[in-house]
């Protein structure tokens, strides 16, 4: 039984007859904490090193994404989410230590991702914190890998756990964070276009409302 469905419904139908998800339905699609575009917020300040700006924001996005996933983690179980996916047409696989591509339950996938990102953030050879240390040549490649994985967690939350966040009235917070994330990723070319497909409709809504 869907406890949340009785309160929030299942969304309106699209033109093709399929059911529109809650996060694309009014008024939830319009929920936000910030009016206007986030472009000025994501632009690197003058005289700030670009890698420093990427590092600080990546750290923040990681922590905030982790908080949102933590809010729905009890509902994201191997039984409820036996594979890591974002809707019926997008499944994500994990590459293990032997370079094998495997399907694993969503909570295990997220745990692997968050542990990996935390280890990268703690690695002084990638994210230097001491004065005089330089960022490595492959630093922005590492940032893109982190953003790809964070995007997948966002997509999973929206497609499979958005109703739980509605129950605690957190949709405006999630929508604002996601808009900030996408705006930042676009500003610095951090997420491939093919990767955003599961959230393309919502991103189009953000564009239309001039939030990104």
TrEMBL record:
Is the keyword Heme in the record?
no
Kindly state which keywords UniProt assigns to this record, in alphabetical order.
Answer: Metal-binding, Zinc
Q: Which InterPro entries match?
A: MOB_kinase_act_fam, MOB_kinase_act_sf
Residues the record lists as binding Zn(2+): 76, 81, 156, 161
Q: One Pfam family for this entry, by name?
A: Mob1_phocein
Can the keyword Zinc be found in this entry's annotation? yes
Give the protein's recorded name: Maintenance of ploidy protein mob2
From what organism does this protein derive? Answer: Geranomyces variabilis
């Amino acid at each position: 039984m869907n406890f949340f469905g009785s309160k929030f419904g299942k969304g309106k139908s699209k033109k093709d007859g399929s059911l529109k998800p809650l996060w694309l339905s009014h008024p939830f699609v319009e929920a936000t904490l910030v009016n206007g575009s986030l472009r000025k917020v994501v632009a690197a300040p003058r005289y700030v090193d670009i890698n420093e700006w990427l590092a600080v924001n990546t750290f923040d996005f990681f922590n905030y994404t982790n908080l949102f996933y933590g809010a729905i983690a009890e509902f994201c179980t191997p039984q409820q989410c036996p594979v890591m996916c974002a809707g019926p047409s997008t499944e994500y696989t994990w590459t293990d230590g032997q370079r094998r591509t495997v399907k694993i339950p969503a909570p295990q996938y997220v745990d692997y991702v968050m542990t990996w990102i935390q280890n990268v953030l703690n690695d002084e050879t990638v994210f230097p914190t001491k004065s005089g240390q330089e960022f490595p040549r492959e630093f922005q490649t590492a940032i893109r890998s982190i953003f790809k994985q964070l995007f997948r967690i966002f997509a999973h939350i929206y497609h499979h756990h958005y109703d739980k966040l509605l129950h605690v009235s957190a949709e405006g917070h999630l929508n604002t964070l996601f808009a900030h994330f996408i705006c930042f990723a676009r500003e610095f070319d951090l997420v491939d276009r093919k990767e955003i497909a599961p959230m393309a409709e919502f991103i189009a809504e953000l564009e239309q409302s001039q939030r990104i």
